[in-house]
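Aim 2, interim progress: modelling of the zinc ion-bound target.
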Amino acid sequence: MFTELIDTLRCPNAHEDSWLVATSTRTQSRHIMEGRLGCPVCSATFEITDGEVLFASPGALRTTRVLDDEAAFRLAAQLHLVEAPQPILLTGSWSRAVAPLRTLVPNVTMFVGDATSIITLDERVSSLRLPVSGFPLATGALRGIALDAQHISDTFIAASARVLRTGGRLVAPASLTLHDTIWRTLAHDADVVVAERLPTSSAPIQLKRAPSAPLF
Ligand SMILES: [Zn+2]
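Predicted structure of the complex, ligand included:
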């Protein structure tokens, strides 16, 4: 877990939006390889093991397969990875895009949720085991999300709408039907639907400050 991205994480439990406080027992560059994240609101803790934040139990076996360059280039275009500095989130089998995207779009930082491929973690790539409650990330924190077929529950779709900024891109399996008050569909082919997050009118979001000293 890259330390600078920890600000983007939020406690997945059902309470007000809360930052997580990190402690580490082993770091590599600015990546926490072994440590723990703690929630100052509900006191939940989440282990960081081999660089991956465990919001859920470690997953199944991983492969070394990667997307070919053409497929990765297509994904980069679908996620519109040109300018905005915000990170993206790749779920499940989209972890195969990490290696080629690293080369194709050198400025992009990535969260990888429930990776099914073996990926290299560094200052641009952080790995999360996702909780069933959705994405433990701040509202509007991401510019793009690629959902695989294992992550298209109503919970994950609602979480995608929350954590994407306005105009942020969603790439999801073509079978998915997206609500047209929240999403503008930009492209639809046999494999994927590409949509843009529409603006929402909602009550102002109250920002919380992280405590100055770690609680754990
Ligand atoms: Zn909490």
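The mean pLDDT is 90. The longest strand covers residues 164-173.
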